[in-house]
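Long-time lurker. I teach an intro course on protein structure, and each term I like to show students one example going from raw sequence to a predicted 3D structure in token notation. This year I'd like something fresh instead of my usual example. Would anyone be willing to generate the tokens for the chain below so I can use it in lecture? Attribution to the forum is fine with me.
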Amino acid sequence: MKKYFLVIFMFTLFPISSYALDMAEIKEKLRPHAVKYLGEETAVKFLGEDPNEVKLPPIPKVIENATSIDVYNDKEDLGNIPKDKQDAYNQAFVTEVFGAVRNMKANRNDVAKWMNVLSQGGTREGMYRALVLDSTYAGLENYPNPLNDEIIGFSVNFYTTYVGRKIKKESLEKVNFYTLKRLATERTLEVVDELRKNKEHLQRWYAVFSGELAKNYPEIWNNKVRMETNKQFHLNWAKQAPSQHLKSEVIIKLHKTFNYLGK
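-- Reply from a regular --
Happy to contribute to a lecture. Here you go:
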């Protein structure tokens, strides 16, 4: 009952006259307050669906090609990003992806090696795949590291929602933690590649993915962009980001989420 009184009170904050805002405008001005004090579900009940809400696109069917090497030949235009900023972004990626993927800090030789690869035209995705296919990562996969209930629950939901595949909890009970991180990310990147055939679908997928992770796991993120729960914000970011930058965000966000749930 208190919720109903609160909604009525909020409506009284906007004087209604022949010169007043129309109802659609009033609802959108009220929506942030309604979500904050009543929760998203109740806000939708009283105000209807948010017309600016970003919806997840249909998840495409992935046609697997085990012999494809397209990922290593994926070149892209970085637009107007200056060379010095490209180097800074790449160095930040190298450092962060090591920590997220392997749970270990990159040393100077690692950073120098991969910065050289990226500066010579190598892709971020290519670097990531090299990291999870080398002997170091194989050792992590061979070490007993079972999954907890939180990781299993997240994985089942994530696969269904963002990858378009159903997996059973039972099938994950004996899977190694690092193996799951690698397989989940590989499957997700395959979906991203299919979505690239329709940029608007890819951008919406990324926006929902990023917004939901920010909302559900706020403790993980340590910069304002990743902490942002507004899906429209992430949609606008995706429209401007080079595809390799978008993919690197997917890689890091997924691995960081698994790491957080695996603590």
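Some talking points for your students: Confidence is low (pLDDT under 50) at residues 16-20. The longest helix spans residues 83-102.
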